[in-house]
Protein: Pseudouridine-5'-phosphate glycosidase
Amino acid sequence: MTSLTMHFSDEVRNALDKGAPVVALESTIITHGMPFPQNLEMARKVEDVIRANGAVPATIAVLKGEIHVGLGDAQLEQLAQTTDAVKTSSRDLAADMVQGLTAGTTVSATMRIAALAGIEIFATGGVGGVHRGAEDSFDISADLNELGMTNTTVVCAGVKSILDIPKTLEYLETQRVPIIAHGSDDFPAFFTRSSGCKADHRLNSAEEIAKAMALHHALGSGTGILIANPIPEEDALTPEFINGTIEAAVKEAADQGVGGKDVTPFLLARINELSEGRSLKANIALVLNNAKLAARMAVAYKALV
Ligand code: PSU
Ligand code: MN
Structure:
């Protein structure tokens, strides 16, 4: 029988042993979501923000076929620079590990590993969702099904309008995933503070969200929770600017026949290029904002349980 080994950094191991607050971080955002060197700068800053807000960051990745929970700076730097990392979702993990691959973990894979490691909260930028035209392509991110079966609370800034946002929200309802907006009535659209869709619930503080997490767990719900934290006003892009860029990128992907797991990385890279870096700047700002909320939630949650 092959058993699963996970490597923990000392910092994360100590924190988990003490029952101290820990926040998980994904790594597809590093390997496939942003270009070097901004990806490395972002990854380091996110960890600093989590520490500054009282929690320990646990960046999760697969390095040469092995799961790591908490990366040292040299590992982070290497991952940010590597050009042969694959993108691994929860269903890909086993096969990628057997082949000894290095992989950025998507939201679904990171949730799965965080749950196994005993980490309740995970911060990222955006989650995957139901793609536009899914009625023909069936392209629905595995992130949504993982949210429906794994009890990890994911803090994001909503989803990008590269996706069909109303369908994504409907799908999450079917999966019994609560959607809670932080300090807003609206579900945010990543670069902008509103998608035009209402969020099901609004909670205004990390403490309230932590209480909801504890109750959701006590109810035996078994699913994840999606916390939608709008991008700060001063970092938000205007819908007029970003929507044109997104439309152009979506059209290019269709014209070039981009499919499967390449769709999301292709769109992220093209949006960044077409917006001349403005989307990347906003993306980094919202990830830091999510890390801060997630760290405060982790502190509040540990005070409750
Ligand atoms: N959306 C973003 N940035 C990202 C991703 C999505 O705005 O970096 C990444 C996340 O890792 C997410 C994955 O889990 O893409 C979803 O990929 P797919 O759509 O192929 O399921
Ligand atoms: Mn897909």
